[in-house]
Design goal:
The complex is a heterodimer of chains A (320) and B (291). With 320 residues, chain A is α/β, with parallel strands linked by helices. Chain A is built from eleven helices and 13 strands. Among the domains of chain A are: 145 residues, Rossmann fold (3-Layer(aba) Sandwich); 63 residues, Alpha-Beta Plaits (2-Layer Sandwich), CATH 3.30.70. In chain A, the strands form three sheets. Chain A has a six-stranded mixed β-sheet with strand order 5-6-7-3-8-9, with helices on both faces. In chain A, a hairpin with a 2-residue loop joins strand 1 and strand 2. In chain A, helix 4 packs across helix 5. The radius of gyration of chain A is 24 Å and the shape is elongated. Chain A starts with 13 loop residues before the first strand and ends in a 10-residue tail after the last helix. Chain B has 291 residues and is an all-alpha fold. Chain B has eleven helices and two strands. In chain B, strand 1 and strand 2 form a beta hairpin. About 4% of the residues of chain B have low confidence. The chains are: A alpha/beta (320), B mainly alpha (291). At the A-B interface, strand 5, helix 3, helix 4, helix 5 and helix 6 of A face helix 1, helix 2 and helix 6 of B.
């Protein structure tokens, strides 16, 4: 076995510096820098087309960056070649397997590429992802969720120190999403370094320590979730009343911190601090206005996410 | 979900960086495992055994021999001539197809299934996978050729007989020598077969389509045979990959001549090197974005 000075050293699991990837005129990833410390649970957020998957493809060496460098546990592709992936596992987009092989045969085949000793772990990883009993079925007959879980199993087979998951809950039904998130949370809690790509803020919010939000290939936010929460706007609520005009007048006259606007879908949308909103709603009731609906439109972090990624005028920030 | 032991929970199993290098042997086993599970490959090998038997039975039962083909005149009464008749027929398109069905799909199937990323996100390099796939494709082609040849020669021997063979120069070749020469003639086909395998591999890598990978070498082989049959292209003919399919003729002449065999080695090797080099460079440089 080779020895390596990076073992147990405090090098970052991922250290991406100024990474850029272009496809013709399209800049898929634009000067992206990111550091993921060992043991960290790191989220990459962004809408579809933001460049998350392109970055992960570069991380795995599936495509080459036009400029910049990506170090995995201190080593680059240029220095170490494919050995840079030792200790790294995961999948990009949906995991794919050979449909004419069973789940077990797929894992056995992949274990060959990881070293024969990994075959002994197949039963264990199948158990972790709850595929025991279905391993002798052909993958062609697997549901989408089962393939996602087989993808996690194939990743765990490598006993990774860094687990990269690209939208693991994507395309799953609600039950599958719940199970997958529970599995990711458990993996994250086990001491692995996890790099989780998602376009769902709540998925990242549940488990991640740090987050990078991408927009059109560039970093729109980079920092801790605490920093992100501090930047989050006041929550918005959908408001249904018996007299919308009166309700808006009360807000204008008595609650300067509360903004009440007509909702294009009908009714009103009220935005303000929770305390001010509560007082405002209580005043509406006291004024004899009937309240039919009062529901949150989105969480503050979701609102911030949309603000950072959708609003073209939003200033890009880096509070890291 | 999750009753097993997670990697970090296991405590002692956190791997050292650079701990594993599976290498070419592991990749060969990986590719062999996949190939053995493919129905297409099994059917092809079974077909290589059974189809020649059927062909021999059908030709042998004909009232008149196919006189207008090489060794056709004696095919219904001499097993060695029958084996050479089948060989001549196989070289037209059967042998290129035999190898292209597997080789043409070897790389393209990874694109079709979106599994490049599954394989290449493990500690396996593109070059390792390339050489493993190439080796398995060539090995499969040679196994298929061996089965086809063995089945043809054995069934011809048993069904038609093993009388002395009349050679291309009209000489009589004793049964024992005839068996050796017929076997050698089939063995010579390994040269262009390897060339066509490499051609199919190139189309498979370049097109990312199994259909192109399989059909293109066969079509190109037929075109080369057509071009080779034209007059006035003597300088071009030695460079055609279909020409080595005729290299065995010298073995059945008197006196024997082996010049075409050497030409076949050079031509097949040249095509193989060029095709593999191009395929390797394409695979090495391309972005894996599918799936």
């Amino acid at each position: 076995m080779d020895t390596d000075p990076t073992v147990d050293s405090p090098v970052d699991a991922v250290d991406a510096v100024d990474v850029t990837k272009r496809y013709g005129d399209l800049v898929a990833v634009d000067h992206l820098s990111m550091r993921v410390a060992q043991g960290e649970i790191y989220g990459i957020l962004g809408p579809n087309g933001a460049g998350k998957t392109t970055f992960l493809r570069m991380l795995f060496g599936l495509i080459r960056p036009d400029s910049g460098s990506i170090r995995l546990f201190g080593r680059t592709w240029a220095e170490a070649g494919v050995d840079v992936l030792d200790g790294v596992a995961g999948f990009v987009e949906s995991p794919r397997f050979y449909p004419y092989l069973t789940g077990l045969q797929n894992l056995e085949a992949l274990a060959l590429l990881d070293g024969d000793d990994q075959r002994a772990r197949i039963a264990e990883v199948l158990d972790i992802v709850d595929l025991t009993g279905r391993e002798r079925d052909r993958v062609a007959g697997y549901s989408y969720g089962m393939r996602q879980r087989l993808g996690v199993a194939a990743s765990l087979l490598r006993e990774p120190r860094l687990l990269v998951l690209d939208e693991p809950a994507n395309g799953l039904d609600p039950g599958g999403i719940r199970d997958m998130r529970a599995l990711v949370k458990r993996l994250a809690g086990s001491g692995l370094t996890v790099l989780l790509s998602s376009h769902h803020m709540d998925e990242v919010e549940e488990i991640c320590d740090n987050v990078t939000i991408m927009k059109r290939g560039a970093v729109a936010f980079h920092g801790t979730l605490t920093d992100l929460r501090a930047m989050a706007p006041d929550p918005g609520h959908r408001l249904g009343t018996t007299d919308d005009a009166h309700a808006r007048r009360i807000a204008r006259e008595a609650y300067p911190g509360v903004v009440v606007e007509p909702d294009p879908d009908g009714g009103l949308v009220a935005t303000g601090s929770p305390a001010r909103l509560s007082a405002y709603v209580a005043d509406l009731v006291r004024a004899g206005i009937g309240l039919r609906e009062f529901t949150p439109t989105e969480t503050p972090l979701e609102a911030l996410f949309f603000m950072l990624t959708d609003a073209g005028t939003t200033a890009e920030r880096d509070v890291a | 979900m999750t009753t097993g032991t997670l990697p970090a929970e296991a405590g002692t199993t956190v791997p050292a960086v650079a701990a594993r290098r599976p290498g070419l042997l592991a990749a060969l086993r990986f590719e062999t495992l996949k190939l053995r599970a493919q129905l297409r490959a099994k059917c092809l090998l079974i077909g290589a055994i059974l189809v020649p038997i059927a062909v021999v039975v059908v030709v042998h039962s004909q009232p008149r021999p196919p006189k207008d083909t090489l060794f056709g005149r004696f095919a219904t009464e001499n097993g060695f001539a029958m084996a050479l008749l089948v060989l001549g027929f196989a070289t037209q398109w059967v042998l290129p197809l035999l190898t292209a069905i597997v080789a043409g799909d070897m790389f393209a199937s990874e694109d079709q299934h979106g599994t490049w990323k599954t394989v290449l996100t493990r500690s396996t390099s593109r070059s390792t996978m390339f050489w493993a796939k190439t080796a398995v494709a060539i090995a499969f082609a040679l196994v298929a050729l061996t089965l086809l040849a063995a089945s043809t020669i054995a069934s011809s021997w048993l069904i038609v007989g093993h009388q002395p063979l009349t050679g291309l120069s009209g000489q009589t070749i004793a049964a024992r020598s005839a068996l050796e020469l017929v076997s050698a003639s089939w063995a010579v086909m390994a040269l262009p077969i390897v060339g066509f395998t490499c051609l199919a591999l190139l189309f498979s890598v370049w097109s990312r389509s199994a259909a192109v990978g399989i059909a293109a070498p066969v079509v190109l082989g037929l075109v080369m045979q057509l071009v080779g049959a034209l007059g006035g292209i003597e300088t071009l003919r030695p460079f055609l990959l279909s020409t080595p399919f005729e290299a065995w003729h010298g073995l059945l002449a008197a006196p024997r001549f082996t010049g075409p065999l050497l030409d076949a080695v050079v031509t097949s090797a040249g095509w193989s090197v060029v095709c593999l080099t191009a395929a390797f460079l394409i695979l090495r440089r391309r972005d894996i974005t599918g799936g």
